[in-house]
C-alpha cells in the first residue's frame, strides 16, 4: 500500500497515523509547506503562494487556495513521474491543497480531514 499525505504543516495532526503506517511498512510520501525530514518518508515541499492583495477578502482567500492547490499539484506530478502512485491520499481540507489531486491520481481514494 502507498499513502500520500498533504498537509501545510506536515505531519500536523497526522503524526500518530504516519508513525503507525511506517511501522506497518506502508510506503508513505508527503507534500507540505514547511521543512521536514524523515528517513522513511518521501517528502516534497511546496513554496508559500504569493498572493497580491485585492482588498476583497473572498478573492484573496480563493486566490491563496488556488495557488496552494497548483503548488501541491506540481509536487504531486513529480511523485507521479518518479513512479509513486498512491492508493490513498489523506489531506487537510482547509487550505485548498487537495483541489487537483484527483486529476493527477484518479484511482487513489481521497480522505479529507481538517
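^ C-alpha cells above, recovered residues below v
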Amino acid at each position: 500500500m502507498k499513502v500520500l499525505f498533504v498537509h501545510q504543516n506536515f505531519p500536523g495532526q497526522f503524526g500518530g497515523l504516519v508513525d503507525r503506517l511506517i511501522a506497518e511498512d506502508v510506503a508513505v510520501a508527503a507534500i507540505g509547506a514547511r521543512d521536514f525530514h524523515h528517513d522513511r518518508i518521501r517528502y516534497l515541499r511546496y513554496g508559500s503562494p504569493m498572493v497580491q492583495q485585492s482588498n476583497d477578502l473572498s478573492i484573496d482567500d480563493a486566490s491563496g487556495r488556488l495557488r496552494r492547490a497548483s503548488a501541491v499539484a506540481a509536487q504531486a506530478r513529480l511523485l507521479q513521474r518518479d513512479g509513486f502512485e498512491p492508493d490513498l491520499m489523506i489531506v487537510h481540507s482547509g487550505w485548498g491543497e487537495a483541489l487537483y489531486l484527483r486529476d493527477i491520481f484518479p484511482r487513489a481514494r481521497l480522505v479529507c480531514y481538517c
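The longest strand covers residues 27-32.
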